[in-house]
Structure formats: structure tokens, C-alpha cells
Amino acid sequence: MNRRSLLGSLLALAASPALAALARDAFAPAEPFSFEALKVRAAMLAERPFAQRPKVAPEIVGRIFYDDHGAIRPVAERALFRGEAFEVTPFHLGQFFPRPVRLHVVSGGQARELVYDRTMFRMPADSPAQKMPDDAGFAGFRVHEAGRGAEDGDWLAFLGASYFRASGDLSQYGISARGIAINSGGPGTEEFPEFTEFWIEAAQNGRGPTVWALLDGPSVSGAFRFETQRAPETLTDVEATLFFRRSVARLGIAPLTSMFWYGEGEREATYDWRPEVHDSDGLQIETGRGDHLWRPLDNPRHLALSAFSDENPKGFGLMQRDRNGDHYLSQVFFERRPSLWVEPRGDWGRGSVQLVEIPTSGEFMDNVVAFWTPERAPEAGERLDVSYRLRWCEDWFAGGGLARATATRLDMPKRDGGKLHRIFYVYFDGAGLAAPGPVEAVASASDAEVAGLSVQVPPQGPRTARRVTFNLVVDGARKDPVEISLHLTRGGARASETWLYRLEVSNDVAPEQASAG
């Protein structure tokens, strides 16, 4: 770029609302920016050996603990895009976010990097962050509504590795998304590629800001673009181009990360007074053929991996269906946690929606991951382009009048000779179930017997509800899990989505006693 062009771009950026509230020396010189150029940079990065970014002042950052980090607040007057519909403020570095990311403001095809300055933050006088060096950098950023503080008006945040999250139409954070997942659930060690740089452009035409990101990790680099929209539900349109340094055994596209400690189903001793604790309660899938599946989440004793084969899926997501606050009795509002639905765009081909469930003994660990895995794993030197929409919402279901599963409950395990018995109570609800005529249940289980299958209207339920009861009879010495499938029909036509369940028989320890039948 020649001197005249550089001066012109500097003048244009200086007039931008993004810079109006900031001193001129808060930004580095302008540089041209485009998504195509970012893709070229990611491709070049993949041709070089991976180099982990260093931590800045680790002896200081390591002392910025959780509470210390929460006490560091952005100065509202220093927000990017101050006074516009949506403002942006950075996150400070901390113990859990020790590696800095670079933040750039984009305007008119030019980008300038935001330079770290302690005066962008309010922090206690005794905060370890007071001693951070002048070039410390940032941990990430959040987007919030103008006129509201960053703490109560934010609705989108990028923070840590390639994680980001949105609050949805109930204005409550919960589930997170990631740019990419590598070997989640095995084989081998899971990798956590990181967004190392962000470019942010002001909201336009009623939409939210546009965000670009550079991803880098041991096996992959990539260029991402996020088009955002705030209301009524939060939408994130994702376009990514990935370049693989080395072959990947299990690639996770559009990975979703959530927490499930316990629900209304199987509950062992949790030593917690709340009836349920989870950010999501099930995996929902709409297959390429238009089938609708529901798999309740579990907190297993051992890591569990489930795969649902498909071709060109229409959507999948980790959903929070239970919206009754009395079922949680929590001051952190689990009933408001957003569901997160993925809508693929383009040809995703053959592969599987995969669900990873990790044992947890509390609510402070995200222990559930869901993602799409292509049938053919990517090899070193390959490029992959992917596009999809993320819908952060209260609910999303394209099954028309099909009834949906609303609760799954199990009786205590019982042994009768060499057999193990588990009684299931599966609840469905849907307007179509109120129509005249009998409703029947169709159930099957892998190498197990489904006995006593019956359908009732619950005594306390509405006319649109049904409770399906059955006794699962399994060989008590069995080691493999039992896969169970159940749906409702009326007059031979399908009346509900398909409920799926994975029962780990080896987890069931029960005294010898007569079966309840």
C-alpha cells in the first residue's frame, strides 16, 4: 500500500463510530482485510509446523483467579461501536484464559488492531491485573445491547479456545458452541484448536456485528466468518474453511458443548437438594430422510460415545425441553438455558451425528458434546469448506403435528434369577394425541425383551399427553449397552418422534428379588 492510500484508510477509520470513543493511539496502523485473504493466511499457516502461542506474564495471569477475573469490568465509555445498536467490549486475561487473542476493528475493507490498555477496564486496586504489561492483549470479547451494561445486556461472547455462546430468546447463557472439535471422545488425545485473532465489523441493516476469526491448532488451521442476528432468537451463520496439517481420526463439525448432571430419569445419590440440574436434557435430530429422533442425555459412569448414521442431515441440536422452573428450583435459571440447533447448508454427505457423554459429579463441568462427523476422516494437506446456521432458541422442532417426548423415568433395577428388569415410563405430548382413536406404542431393544408395553393418559396430564410403560428384560451378565427405540402410532400412521435410549446394563447393581413384571 502506498503512502496516499494508507493516509486515506486512516482518515476513513478515524471517522468510524468504532473509534469515536477511543484515543487515536489505541489502534495499530490500518491494513487491508478480506475473508479471502484470511483463507490464504490460514492455508499458509497450515503449511508450517504448529507453534503454540506463549502466555503473557504467566506469573501475573496465573494469580487472576475466577473471582478476580469476574471483578474486572470493561469501561462502558470505551466500548467499540459506542452508541450504536450493539457495542463490543473485550475480556481481560485470567487464569483460565491465559493466552491473548488479537482484536481488530474492520471498516471499509480496512482493519486496525485494538491495543491493550488497562484503562479500558475497571479493576480493584489490589487486583493482580494492575501489574499487567502494556502489551498484554485480550482474552476475547462480548457483544451487548447499547445503553445496557456489558454484564446484563450481553448476548454473544467469544472466550477460550474456539468456544463461543449466545443467550438466545430467553436472555440466559448456557450451552456453548465451538469452531471445531478434534478427537472428542477419542481415539487419542483431544485437541482444542484456538481462535487466535478476531476481526469485528459494526452491525448493519438491523443485524448484529460480523465477526471473522483465525483458527490454529496442532492438526488444523482455518478461517471463519460469523454473521449474527439478535432477535427474537439469536442466529449465527457460520462459514468456515479448514486446512489440515495432519490427518484427523475424528473430526467434529459444528460441535456443541453442554452440561448434564442429573434429570428426572436415573438419579443416583447426588447430595443436592434440587430436583434437576442440567443446561440441556436431550439430543434432537432431524435426519436427511425427515425422521425425527430424541435421545435423552445421561451422566454415565464411564465415557459413552453414541453415533447416529445419516446422510445430509437436516438438523441436530442439544435442547433444553423442560421449561418448568419448579423442576429445577434454582437461582441460576436452568429453565431459561437456550437450546442450540444446527442447520447444515450445502452437501454434508454421509457421516454421523455423534454424542459424547462424560461422567461428572457436579454442575461446573461441561460433560456433553454433540457434533457431525464425516464418513471419511480428513487427511493431511486437505481443505474442507463447511457452512451452517446456529439457532440459539427456546425451542425448535420441524416435526409438524408429531408428539414429542417430554420426560423419561426409570424404576429401580430388579433381578429375577439371571435376568435384570428395568421398568420405563416415557411421557409424550402433542396436540395430535387428543384426537379420537387409540394410540399404540411400537418399541424394540437390541438383544433384550420389551414386556408389558402399554399406553395410558397420565392421571395428572392433559388430553394431549400419553405415558408409555414397559419392562425391559435383559441378561444380567450382559456387558454391552442396550439400545432401545420407541414411538407412537395412530391408525398405523406415525404419531410421535422416535425416542431412543442407551441403557448401560453393567451399571445396574440390584439385589436378587422377584420382578415387578
Fold and architecture overview:
It comes from Antarcticirhabdus aurantiaca. By secondary structure, the chain is mostly beta strands. Among the domains are: 1-159 and 190-247, Distorted Sandwich (Beta-galactosidase, Chain A, domain 5), CATH 2.70.98; 404-507, Immunoglobulins (Immunoglobulin-like, Sandwich), CATH 2.60.40. Helix content is 8%, strand content 41%. It has six helices and 35 strands. It is globular.
The SS-based structural class is: mainly beta
Radius of gyration: 25 Å
CATH fold-level label of the domain at 1-159 and 190-247: Beta-galactosidase, Chain A, domain 5
Characterize the main sheet. 16 strands, mixed
Number of helices: 6
What is the correct CATH architecture of the domain at 1-159 and 190-247? Distorted Sandwich
Protein name: Glucan biosynthesis protein
Organism: Antarcticirhabdus aurantiaca
